[in-house]
Amino acid sequence: MEEKAATEARNHARLAIMELANMISVPMSLNAIVRLNVPDAIWQGGSNTPLSASEILARVLPTGGDAENLQRILRMLTSYGVFAEHLCSDGSGDRKYSLTVVGQTLVTDNDGLSYAPYVLQHHQEALMRAWSLVHEAVVDPTTEPFVKANGEAAYGYYLKQPEMNGLMLKAMSGVSVPFMKAMLDGYNGFEGVQRLVDVGGSAGDCLRMILQKYPSVREGINFDLPEVVAKAPEIPGVIHVGGDMFKFIPQGDAIFMKWILTTWTDEECQKIMENCYKALPARGKLIACEPVLPEQSDESHRTRALLEGDIFVMTIYRAKGKHRTEEQFRRIGLSAGFPHFRAFPVDHFYTLLEFLK
Ligand SMILES: C[S@@+](CC[C@H](N)C(=O)[O-])C[C@H]1O[C@@H](n2cnc3c(N)ncnc32)[C@H](O)[C@@H]1O
């Protein structure tokens, strides 16, 4: 009996390692269906009618393509919860596909946003070149795999290529807007703030949403690299300011910062937070939103998404930038001068971190 259980465990282990070894098929297929614009083609303004691969193909590639290969991709992603599969009851073996709730996050909404640009952004060729060098982050963490593969750091590389820069802005907006809605529903820390600075605010979407909910914020300063704010759209009540957060951060009653600290080393985070400290009045507040790791590693979707993001940061942005635990954030805040710290988990991916002067 014991031998049978051991054999079963070994069989299961072999299966598990085969799944992991073939896992690259998942993100690359996800990228393929986004590139082919499959989610929008199925969604069609909310109808989400199950379609065969040939029917989808007719919508996305009117000049023709291989329906069987598209179906292979759809089947595999069905297994990962992106599509729902409908087997035709006539015994023909024909299959049709609609979008699950997960697949629907890839559909372009009325504001032109979705998670699709984030998928595309993560699989551009320059990033793919870095992925085969992940082990180099262990061998030599002084140079990022992205830098080894492409000769320069990711942000500098994006900024030189208008298409990459544009995709980055779209990807950030697609992820940030749904999070900001959840955050603004569950957090009232912007009450009483009149001048708010968003450090690394990208296109200014976060500020736009905060100002809509809190008209008492009379001035929003969207602070980002000069090349980034040069592309940012005009937003009523928002002034775009270009600069380098390692040198100087504009003054405000409060500072907001989303998805910034993760990209940098502990020493760099301390420097950014010291500049925030200098830009704030007595009792001023830094509100940071970051992915926050649980202390314990487990197999939940949340922990996996956070740990996978951590490897992304290590490979692409900063070999010693990282996702951190609450305690690690508290300590860096303290070293930058912030004596008070509170954490609010307002979303599955991001946690809101308040640092008070
Ligand atoms: C991951 S994105 C987050 C964007 C936005 N806060 C959001 O959550 O959607 C990081 C942002 O930091 C900006 N950034 C990078 N280095 C910077 C620097 N030295 N000074 C100011 N902003 C910087 C990037 O241009 C980018 O917009």
Automatic annotation (TrEMBL):
Highest taxon of the lineage: Eukaryota
The protein's name in its UniProt record: Uncharacterized protein
Provenance organism: Bauhinia variegata (Purple orchid tree)
Lineage: Eukaryota, Viridiplantae, Streptophyta, Embryophyta, Tracheophyta
